[in-house]
Write a structure and sequence with these properties.
- The structure is a single chain.
- The protein contains 4 helices and 8 strands; from the N terminus they run αβββββαβαββα.
- With 238 residues, the chain is an alpha/beta fold.
- It has a domain at 9-140: Trna Endonuclease, Chain: A, domain 1, CATH 3.40.1350.
- A 6-stranded mixed beta sheet has the order 1-4-5-6-7-8. Strands 2-3 form a two-stranded antiparallel sheet.
- The protein is elongated, with a radius of gyration of 58 Å.
- It starts with 8 loop residues before the first helix and ends in a 24-residue tail after the last helix.
Length: 238
């Protein structure tokens, strides 16, 4: 905590929570020491005096070379006094200085840096939503190396820390497909030969009914009597 600032209890709890999340975030690439609340255990030599950043990054080698300092600010601590007391001295160190501020204080932090000559290597915003904390990179100096590791979900199940997840690359447009060729006309099947028409069978005569069988047959007509042939006349002798 800055010696010139006393935060409200709620802001102080949020401030310390963000520090512990950042400790887990940077631990994958650095050895991380923290100064939380009134616990000031890891100082940084600035000129003839000592300051206590919220997080101090060291190399993982035996030399424990200083690799960066980090300050986490709340809405109350983004002001001119804090800028001159900590941001400016930390930005003059050879190791990169990283600043974390709430999203609503981002513009004010940029104005204060420009007004007092503070030059953070990176400026991040953090957004707290219930049990989730999201970190977003807002500014990176052109010559500053990337200090944060690849983004991943926070230790409390929040959204990915650091830069927002990169959008998936758009798929290359598929080449225009050639118009489908018309299907070849199907060969007509040979016409089936017409079968010869069967001749109709004569209708069968109806069988006589029993009544017709017993009916008397009509009497046959009597033949007309034949006329006697005319006798030939005897020839006359002259």
């Amino acid at each position: 905590m800055s010696p010139i600032l006393v935060r409200p209890v709620r802001e102080q709890l949020e401030h310390d929570r963000v520090i512990r999340l950042l400790q887990a975030k940077y631990r994958r690439k650095h050895e991380v020491a923290i100064n939380v609340g009134l616990e000031q255990t890891t100082p940084v030599q600035v000129g003839t005096g000592q300051l206590f950043p919220d997080l101090v990054l060291f190399s993982t080698e035996k030399s424990r070379k200083l690799q960066g300092t980090i300050e986490v600010e709340t809405g109350e601590s983004v002001n001119s006094l804090e800028t001159m007391a900590q941001w400016v001295p930390f930005s003059r160190l050879k190791a990169p200085f990283i600043l974390y501020v709430p999203p609503v204080a981002l513009d004010a932090a940029r104005r204060l840096c420009a007004a007092h000559g503070a030059e953070p290597a990176e400026i991040w915003t953090y957004h707290v939503n219930f049990d989730q904390v999201r970190f977003t990179l807002a500014h990176r100096s052109a010559n500053a190396p990337a200090m944060a590791p690849e983004p991943r979900k926070s230790a409390e199940g929040g959204k990915p820390a650091g830069k927002a997840a990169a959008k998936p690359a758009k798929a290359a447009p598929k080449p225009a497909s050639k118009p489908a060729s018309k299907p070849a006309p199907k060969a007509k099947a040979p016409a089936a030969k017409a079968k010869p028409v069967a001749k109709a069978k004569p209708a069968a005569r109806p069988k006589p009914t029993p009544a017709a069988r017993t009916a008397p047959k009509p009497a046959a007509r009597k033949a007309a009597p034949k006329k006697p042939a005319a006798k030939a006349k005897p020839a006359k002798h002259r």
